[in-house]
Design goal:
By secondary structure, this protein is an alpha+beta fold. The longest helix has 16 residues. The strands form 2 sheets. It has a 4-stranded antiparallel sheet. The mean pLDDT is 89. The chain has one domain.
Length: 183
């Protein structure tokens, strides 16, 4: 499949598809939790290929990430959750830094001391173990966030591509908003 074929599939039926249909299944729970605690997400990628991918994507090998906007400074719970997140990030070996107008959370496999474990002498470009650290990291951070207080009983998750709809050359069309209820 070439780039334009992949793009056509991603942009197909955008009026009928919600953003949650587009988010990588392995990182979707983390995206939902970030929104629940008041950190509105923009973009995400689980960082590895998986069976039944919702859309054809090119994943950055071994790098899971979520971008989210600065918390609403008028919402003390969201601000407190932001600072709690910064501690959880250290605890679970993620990185977090400001990136343009958002914050970026990133987990990247550090293979120091594990070179032989990840040897790929069989000619297959991806080790069968490449995804494992990312799945564990996503799970651990998601579970930690479940202990944080909610900012609302429901949240609306928007497709980050909607931020660029004014750019005529932006190629990925935004999906419909998703509403997630927490009851």
């Amino acid at each position: 499949m070439n780039y334009h074929e992949r793009l056509k599939i991603i942009n197909k039926d955008i009026q009928k598809r919600e953003v949650l249909d587009s988010i990588d299944r392995p990182i979707k729970p983390l995206v939902i939790e970030l929104n629940r605690i008041g950190l509105k997400t923009k973009f995400s990628c689980c960082g590895f290929s998986y069976d039944g991918e919702e859309e054809p994507k090119t994943h950055t090998k071994n790098q899971s990430y979520v971008q989210f906007f600065y918390p609403d400074l008028n919402n003390p719970t969201a601000v407190k959750n932001f600072f709690q997140l910064s501690l959880a990030v250290v605890k679970w070996n993620w990185s977090m830094w400001p990136f343009s107008n958002v914050w970026e959370l990133e987990f990247k496999i550090r293979k120091v001391g594990m070179e032989n474990f990840y040897d790929q002498k069989d000619g297959i470009p991806q080790s069968i173990h490449d995804y494992e650290g990312n799945v564990i990291a996503i799970y651990n951070l998601t579970e930690e966030l479940k202990t944080f207080p909610s900012v609302a009983t429901s949240v609306t998750i928007e497709d980050g591509n909607s931020n660029y709809s004014k750019l005529t050359e932006w190629q990925i069309k935004p999906k419909q908003k998703s509403i997630v209820n927490f009851s």
